[in-house]
Structures are given as structure tokens and as C-alpha cells.
Amino acid sequence: xxxxxxxxxxxxxxxxxxxxxxxxxxxxxxxxxxxxxxxxxxxxxxxxxxxxxxxxxxxxxxxxxxxxxxxxxxxxxxxxxxxxxxxxxxxxxxxxxxxxxxxxxxxxxxxxxxxxxxxxxxxxxxxxxxxxxxxxxxxxxxxxxxxxxxxxxxxxxxxxxxxxxxxxxxxxxxxxxxxxxxxxxxxxxxxxxxxxxxxxxxxxxxxxxx
Length: 210
Hints:
The chain has helices at 4-9, 39-53, 63-66, 85-95, 113-120, 143-155, 185-205; strands spanning 25-30, 57-62, 99-104, 130-136, 159-160, 165-167. The chain is an alpha/beta fold. α5 (113-120) links the parallel β3 and β4. It is globular, with a radius of gyration of 16 Å. The two termini are 29 Å apart.
């Protein structure tokens, strides 16, 4: 995963407005930040597949590395009058994306607090961009986490896609010998379908961000 400094520096060479017809920028956000998390394993699997798919410029975003404090800006994010450097850096990162995939577990039938906090920091930077999900967990495959966050996404004028990757009982796909994650062909097909939809929506929504 890139550090905050590396991600912010990228803003000098790649911004939202330079999306080409063939390669918009897709940010893959790892939502879990706790010690002992499995999110990076799941994210790495999806990132590798997305790179092979080759439809997007791929940026991995780890909220643990971003390390935002609990929302503390004195002004509403719709004003874009940010006081703190961590908010300005986060704004620059999110602003250059054309689409997102959120890799998320489920906490008490809900999304991770770090994800909600990261979303709340900004407003305009999220708007008119599609978002897909790779969710993982027990019997529900993290789908309740996805459903819980969708009202917030639509309030931010994002477009959450119904096409998603949901991985139930995900621990069985972690290989004991290598520590890698591989949920198999069925989930790869789901990932391909989601990436295809993200590309369509990213292109369709671009004029609304002009």
C-alpha cells in the first residue's frame, strides 16, 4: 500500500480531470484498520485481479496508513475550507479518483468506523463517482456492512453498484503455507462483472464532474 506522502505526491501527475477514455483511476480502499485484520489479504487478491483486468489505473488506499483522526474539521466539508493538513491530503487523494472499490468486513452488522469517518471528512470529492464493494465475513459475507453504508454514499452523491463481490466464510480461502488469499474462480467472475460496471459508470458520470 502507498503511504500518505506517496499518494499525495501523485496529485502532481495524475488528477481526476486527466481520465482517458481507456483508463480511469480506480482507488481500492481497505476499510479495516484494527490490529490482526485480514483486509490487506483480501485487498491484495482483488488488486492483483484488477491489474490483470487492465481497465483502470489502480491505486491501493489503506485507511490504516491514511490514519485520519476522528472528524475534527471546524467547517462543513461542502465548503472545502479545510484547516488541517490531514484533511487537505485526504482531499487530494480522493479528488483524483474516478471510481472506488471498498474492501470491507462487517462489524456488528455495520461498516467499520474508520470507513464512516473517512467518508464524512469530504463531500465534493466523492460526488458523481461509482463505488463497488468487496465484502468478506462469516455467513453473510459482509453484505450487511455494505447495506449499512449505502445511504451515506448516496447522500454524498456517489453511485453504489448492485454488482459486488461477497465472500462468506472467507478464512477458508487463506492459504496456511503462504498466507495469501484466493477465493477462487467464482469470485474472480464476480470481480470481473463489477469492474466492467465500474468502467461504464465512471465514463457515464465524468461529465457531471466537469
